[in-house]
Design goal:
Elements lengths: L1 H31 L1
């Protein structure tokens, strides 16, 4: 059970990090435009 929870938490963390990166890229793209 603990390993499963850790896996899910890691997945969620990765998702949040990727969304943050995407948002940053979007802002950079808009600034370049």
């Amino acid at each position: 059970l603990i390993t499963q929870v850790v896996k899910t938490v890691k997945k969620v963390m990765n998702k949040t990090v990727t969304t943050k990166q995407i948002r940053r890229n979007q802002t950079k793209f808009l600034l370049l435009m």
